[in-house]
Design goal:
The protein is of the alpha+beta class and 766 residues long. The chain is 31% helix and 25% strand. A hairpin with a 2-residue loop joins strand 31 and strand 32.
Length: 766
């Protein structure tokens, strides 16, 4: 196995320590593996197991009270506006549906009453296979667990070093919302249930195939006695998909059993590696130690003690890619707040899609880290949201287009979520999600995709054409809204959340309008709408520098109630957008630095996802050592023993944001150029990365030594003009010969033509 490609431990995860179990998944079906000795627990999830059914939660009193609320805000009557908003603009009922676990599979072993020898529990992220092995009474036991996207089953393969030594009882269950587990035949169980009134009906099938020994049922349990080799095949499905989940589950386990474990494993690894092995990373320092002989929790503890471990950062980066492949596949739902891994019937924040940062962050690594297909579930879910979003736009705002607030769920719910004044009334959720459609186009330049995506982008923009109103300075602003989840002080000391035109809103709308305008040009259609948006965009508030030299968060330069707040929404223009850049807007870039330093000085970055966002922002500001400092802080302060990110509690967004941040330190492409090593810290003075992607349809491999690019290869998918920025002048090689190029900015930028499908070498200029 390659170094830094596995998580491994010398003891099981405690039964009460879910955050030490190891995750497997195929996009739809997920499992958390504890690695127990007398009892193995695999906690199960299926991505469509959500409580309850769809509802219309749009407040019937919203539209008639909206102009009253807007006028209150214009008149400075904040408390009246907030009071009326609380009742008239909240969802009815207040909350969307929440995600639930599928159940648990327990394997209770016989004759395992002694302490094991040579115990090891590992997750090989290069093959997406978890392994537990140990010796008991002189016999070596081994079990491998994988979740196949090819065959749509989870497989547990158990072996022993001597014949007839595998004996155990299988328990497949769930509590509550559980009808029961039933015997289908002597080797197959079926778990049945429904997730509450009007909720989805779920099924999970478990089939046992044994070599030697005996397989039989008692009550709702399956027993295996004195077997040589045993393979368990497990499937899960709900009627959300519109088919018969029980028949589907049985078909999958029966077919898998016919195919057999060795073939399933081989096909699983091949299919998984077709995604995972697109990228390779090897960060090194001058004195990098090989610490792969230490367990993952030992290495993490060393980082918490202030010691360096560049290899762990390589592992963390690829673990983020592993998690995205495992929780977001075409045909599945998008990764939620916990990917697909959730143990609680009532999880924190419902384990929903929180779309004022968290869901978007889940997909920051998708394009740059060469996992474009894994972006597709998000696009599909945006389409599910459109009909609901149209209803919300019409019923609440009297507007065309579609809108969503700061959460959505399985059913694409778009009405306001919760009764939480700092967050609930924020109508930018769908707009931010739609920018992922544009990002996919920017990386792939797939015009057929853009033709379809444009209709969605346009419909999101149409809402703001109707909703934006003039403020007292004649600017077009949102009213009402909030700056996600922050609170300000009025000059009289009064606290407020509701406001007119918070900075993030204008920045998102600017990006959305720009994507639509550029789409009309690329598609050579709908130019009239593009012209309208161009005029409206010119009237949006621009990023403003406040009294402390910071980027202003609200239309007024208010004091913050929490200067170290976890959300840094007003720097959306810096990242993920590109309205603030080091070279094009240097004054705003300096103000962004002030903003970040002020947040951090007051305790900011205390949640994993916030720290991950800060990494990306420092990378965009080309502050390499500050970006690295926050990578280390993410590992030291916000990473659990199984490398899951913690808010706390566990949220997966920090994993994805951390992986994206490391990529952003090594390559950026948001300024119509490919910038190599824009934020390379001294701790990574040498290294290589292969398969990283850039906007414009480029894939890049490159190496560096002594902080400088030493060689590279650029593959052009679309034949675009290529601009490369590097700290050392480079020349471009084709077929062993230097090709004609154009240099700019004292040879920091090299510009050259490419042909579609061709690759070009890169070396330091001789």
């Amino acid at each position: 196995m390659k170094k830094n490609q596995r998580l491994w431990y010398t003891k099981p995860a405690p039964s009460d320590a879910w955050v030490e179990a190891l995750p497997v998944g195929n996009g739809n079906l997920g499992g958390m593996i504890f690695g127990g000795i007398q009892r193995e627990q695999i906690q199960l999830n299926e991505d469509t197991v959500w409580y309850g059914g769809p509802r219309d939660r749009n407040n019937p009193d919203a539209l008639k009270n909206l102009p009253i609320i807007q006028q209150h805000l214009l008149d400075g009557n904040l408390k009246e506006a907030e009071r009326l908003t609380y009742f008239a603009l909240s969802g009815t009922p207040q909350s969307e549906r929440h995600y639930q676990p599928l159940g648990d599979l327990f394997i209770n072993f016989e004759n395992h009453d002694e302490s094991p020898e040579d115990y090891m529990r590992e997750l090989d992220i290069d093959q997406a296979v978890a392994t537990i092995q140990y010796k008991m009474k002189g016999i070596k036991y081994k079990r491998e667990i994988l979740t196949s996207a090819v065959h749509q089953v989870m497989v547990v393969h158990l072996t022993a070093g001597a014949g007839g030594k595998l004996s155990f009882m299988l328990d497949l269950n769930r509590h509550p919302y559980y009808d029961g587990t039933y015997v289908i035949n002597a080797d197959t169980l079926m778990m049945r249930g429904r997730t509450g009134d009007g909720g989805v009906s779920f099924r999970s099938a478990l089939k046992v195939v044994s070599t030697g020994g005996k397989v039989y049922t008692l009550g709702r349990h399956l027993f295996v006695e004195n077997a040589d080799v045993v393979t368990l095949y497990l499937s899960g499905r709900t009627d959300y998909h519109g088919d018969d989940p029980e028949a589907w589950c049985l078909e999958k386990v029966e077919k898998a059993a016919q195919v057999g474990y060795e073939v399933i494993k081989k096909e699983h690894i091949k299919e998984y590696q077709s995604l995972y092995r697109r990228m390779h990373i090897d960060l090194k320092g001058e004195k990098t130690e090989d610490l792969s002989h230490l367990t993952t929790d030992q290495r993490l503890q060393r980082v918490k003690e202030g010691k360096e471990d560049v290899g762990l950062i390589n592992l963390y980066f690829q673990f983020g890619r592993y998690l995205l492949i495992s929780s977001s596949r075409p045909g599945a739902l998008p990764a939620n707040l916990q990917g697909i891994w959730n143990k609680d019937m009532m999880p924190s924040w419902g384990s929903k899609y929180t779309i004022n940062i968290n869901t978007e962050m889940n997909y920051w690594p998708a394009e740059v880290c060469n996992l474009s297909e894994c972006h597709q579930p998000l696009f599909d879910h945006i389409e599910r949201m459109r009909e609901s979003g149209r209803q919300t736009a019409q019923k609440m705002y009297g507007a065309k287009g579609f809108v969503a607030h700061h959460n959505t769920d399985l059913w694409g719910d778009t009405a306001p979520q919760d009764l939480y004044k700092p967050a609930t009334q924020w109508p930018l959720g769908a707009a931010w999600l739609c920018l992922h459609l544009w990002e996919h186009y920017e990386f792939t330049e797939d015009l057929e995709f853009l033709k379809k995506a444009y209709e969605t982008l346009k419909e999101s923009a149409e809402f703001f054409v109707d909703f934006l109103t003039e403020d007292q300075q004649g600017r077009l602003v949102t009213n009402p809204s909030v700056s996600p989840e922050n609170t300000y002080f009025l000059p009289n000391g009064e606290k407020g959340n509701l406001c007119i035109g918070p900075s993030m809103d204008s920045q998102i709308i600017y990006a959305l309008f720009t994507a639509c305008i550029e789409s009309t040009s690329l598609l050579e259609s709908d130019r009239e709408f593009g012209s309208l948006l161009t005029e409206l965009r010119s009237r949006l508030p621009e990023p403003t520098i406040g009294k402390y030299g910071q980027i202003q968060e609200w239309a007024e330069d208010y004091e913050e109630a929490e200067p170290g707040h976890r959300h840094i929404s007003h720097l959306f223009a810096l990242h993920p957008a590109n309205q603030i850049t080091v070279r094009k807007t240097p004054n705003l870039a300096e103000a962004a630095k002030v903003t970040l330093k002020k947040r951090l000085a007051h305790g900011g970055g205390h949640t994993g996802w916030s720290r991950a966002w800060i990494i990306n922002m420092w990378a965009r500001l080309e502050e390499e050592e500050l970006a690295y400092e926050n990578v280390v802080a993410l590992l030291a302060n916000s990473t659990l023993p199984n490398l899951f990110d913690t808010h706390p509690p566990f949220q997966i967004d920090g994993n994805f944001g951390g992986t994206a941040g490391i990529a952003e330190m090594l390559l950026q492409s948001h300024e119509d150029e490919i910038h190599l090593l824009p934020a390379l810290p001294k701790a990574w003075s040498q290294g290589e990365i292969k398969g990283i992607c850039a906007r414009g349809g480029f894939t890049i491999d490159f190496e560096w030594e002594d902080m400088k690019v030493s060689k590279g290869k650029i593959h052009s998918k679309n034949g675009n003009l290529c601009r490369i920025r590097s700290s050392v002048p480079v020349e471009i090689i084709k077929d062993g010969e230097s090709i004609g190029v154009h240099y700019e900015e004292n040879e920091e930028v090299v510009v050259f033509d490419t042909e579609a499908g061709q690759s070009y070498g890169l070396i330091p200029k001789r």
